[in-house]
Amino acid sequence: MSSPDLPQAERSVETGAGGETHPRGAGPAPRPASFRLRRLALAGPTLATAAAIAALALAAYGLPETWLGRTVLGLFVVLMAWQSFTAWQYLYGFIAALMGDRALSPLERRAATISTRPTGLSRTAAVVAIHAEDPIAVFAAIRVMARSLQREGGNGSDIDIFVLSDTREGAISAVEEHEFARIQAWAEREGRGMPRIRYRRRTENTGRKAGNIAEFCQTYGHEYDFMIVLDADSLMTGAAMRRLARLMEENPRTGLIQTVSYAAGRDTLFARIQQFAVRLYAPLSLRCLETWQGPDGSYWGHNAILRIEAFANNAELPVLSGRPPLGGEILCHDIVEGALLRRAGWEVRLLPEMGGTWEEMPTNLIDLLGRERRWCQGNLQHIRVLPMKGLLGASRWHLGVGILGYCVYPLWIAFLGLGTWQAARSGELGLIGYGLDGGNAAAWSLAALVIAIMALPKLLSLGYVLASPQRRADFGGTRSLLVSAALEQAIWVLLWPVMALFAAGAVLTTLVGRVVRWDAQSRDDRSVPWGEAFRLQSDAVAAGGALAVLLAFSGSPWLALWMAPVAIALLTSPAQSVFTSSTRLGLGSKARGLFLTEDDTRPAPELLELHHSRTAGAEPSALGGTTAPWLPVTIEETSAPTLR
Fold it and tell me: Where is region (Disordered) located (predicted)?
């Protein structure tokens, strides 16, 4: 590799007969019995709770005699088993969080204390994979990351920032070239400690992002030991990059370390609600995930560091048999690449609390649903990856959870639809009401258990934050946290039926052969026009209208009251898209202390610099200086990569 005296990858690998590389010592390290116990501690209670729900449902309502009743019962048990799994993840994570350092992996403990000074033992490329993105926004973030690396000290030779462009559009690629020239001139003015910033463009984007990264490994991988994979909307501090590189140096069996990149930096009401919700509810589930998976982690595609030789030699993606959408090129490639690394014996680790790493998210409901449509097809493709030889059980579990995460939505829609029909015919809510209108102890016990598992994730997450003065302050204080959480829950009640109906449709259309286009995402704060909202959500409005008619003619006021939130949510879905895409409402909520996170109450310098570059149009390093005027340039496309 790049350091001939102490090449990390060469010291830590041995090559198999087929050219694949493994950690020295061959094969996965034996997992201690404690990991088996940790996994049983999650699986056992989940299965027991699901069995208890099934038993209580039978005791409360008996074994149905009709196909409709049996179908509703079956759907109810399956869905509540999934909800039980979610609830136990949060309880598991809550207990692990209360254990403090005792629940942390050695890698996590080391990450908290490791120096951010470069050792000179390795070289890393922070690769930013882009395709028809906004070049000005991309290079603004790169400036921030370069400046952050400079602040951490060193001469800048240990980490390069490498832009990997797959852009084919001539106008956009011209702006990329222009912005690259500007940033080179800027880095030269900044002086010592700046990382080298490089750029290359493919005009044939074979294999999409996975092919882009693979081509980099083949062409430039010999120059580096590690690569930090970043998306166009990623941001990472120089300290985080250096910590990751040093952790890889110290852990030669580790092929990949995944960080948690929290959504930040967007100001529509929808984006602010989502940023708040992820910050509030993700930590406990992530703590659970890291605790039970250990070295059998997964790869999320960005904001992670990989050992280049291990990745290049072991993570080549197969082409799935059959035609798209389930066959052909693997679209959601990251989790498969992580599974292939793990199959070769490399540890795949998660750092759930390292910090200093962010991403952005869709800023309105329409764009989020579009992304979910793409991810749905990508995850359903993994049905054909599951039988692949040699994959570890944990890797198959990661793949399976991704598949099930989408497949539950058609089950929910079927349960709500058939359950409403059954309730309209019988005059009782039955299982669609979770047993609340039952007249016996079994029904009341069922209702209590179901409500508990539905509420537990959010209650535990709130309790975890409220128990710490620092965490409360990060969310703007107790009052701000509780009001924001209540509003988020109310808005979620309206958003969930729309998202569930859309995801159910995405699953069904994928299974019948509809192929989705993977175009560049809209990443800016974008307001949704009324016409677009009605055009794209007319099916939700129609479904809401049909449900409202059914409720009106059911003759059951309790059923109408129980299902009214779903009908209202579907009927008002275009209005939800329009109003929640408002930046004015988003900034207004922030001004009133709502939906605050630590990125608002104690923002990192990198976030402030990036925000300044967007609002003032200045280079973040200058903070008061001026930038060169923007001048479009014209270049010719070539079939060979462009490199600087």
Answer: 1-32
**Nearest-angstrom CA–CA distance, 565 and 260:** 34
* Whether residue 621 has pLDDT greater than 80: no
CA 92 from chain centre, in angstroms, equals 21
Strands 642-643 and 197-201: what pairing?
antiparallel
What's the token pair of residue 119? 């050792």
DSSP state letter for 157: -
User: pLDDT tier at 268 (50, 70, 90 boundaries)?
Assistant: very high
SS3 sequence, 327-385?
CECCCCCHHHHHHHHHHCCCEEEEECCCCCEEECCCCCHHHHHHHHHHHHHHHHHHHHC
| Whole-structure pTM value | 0.90
Nearest to 353 by CA among 111, 148, 598, 607: 111
Return the closest-CA partner of residue 303 out of 348, 259, 350, 243: 259
Query: What six digits make up the tokens of 154?
Result: 């060193």
DSSP, residue by residue, 266-277: --SHHHHHHHHH
Residue 516's pLDDT is 85
Report the number of secondary-structure helices (H) and strands (E) in the chain: 23, 13
Kindly write down the DSSP assignment for every residue of 505-574, as one continuous string: HHHHHHHTTPPPP-PPPP-S--PPPHHHHHHHSHHHHHHHHHHHHHHHHH--HHHHHHHHHHHHHHHTHH
Nearest to 353 by CA among 151, 97, 86, 606: 97
> What is the edge-to-edge ordering of all strands in the sheet holding 262-263?
235-236, 357-359, 262-263
- Which structure tokens are listed for 452? 């508990």
Q: Residue 200: how many CB atoms within 10 A of its CB? A: 19
Decide if pLDDT at 624 tops 50: no
CA-CA distance, 355 to 138, in Å (whole number)?
21
Torsional class of 118: left (φ above 0), alpha (ψ -120 to 50), beta (otherwise) = beta
Half-sphere exposure of 363 (CA within 13 A, CB side): 21
Q: Quote the DSSP letter at residue 296.
A: B
With cut-offs at 50, 70 and 90, classify the pLDDT of residue 522.
confident
Cβ–Cβ under 8 Å, residues 521 and 371 = yes
Contacts within 8 Å (CB) and 24+ apart, 134-137? 134/523, 134/524, 135/172, 135/175, 135/176, 135/178, 135/179, 136/175, 136/179, 136/630, 137/232, 137/523, 137/524, 137/614
| Percent of the chain's residues with pLDDT above 90 | 85
Average pLDDT, the chain: 90
Residue in 147, 146, 154, 142 with CA at minimum distance from that of residue 116 = 154
Radius of gyration of the chain (CA): 26
Strand, helix or coil at 189? helix
By DSSP bridging, strand 159-165 and strand 124-130 are parallel
Cis peptide before 362 (omega within 30 of 0): no
Six-digit token string for 229 = 């994979």
What's the pLDDT tens digit per position in 463-521?
999 999 999 999 999 999 999 999 999 999 999 999 999 999 999 999 999 998 776 67
pLDDT in tens, 165-214: 999 888 999 999 999 999 999 999 998 999 999 999 997 888 889 999 99
| Contact of 155 with 169, CB cutoff 8 Å | no
Q: Which tokens belong to 206?
A: 């074979």
In the chain, what are the helix, strand and coil shares in percent, each to the nearest 5?
60, 10, 30
Residue 325 contacts residue 361 (beta carbons within 8 Å):
no
* Per-residue pLDDT at 527 exceeds 90: yes
Q: Which pLDDT score, from 0 to 100, does residue 628 have? A: 31
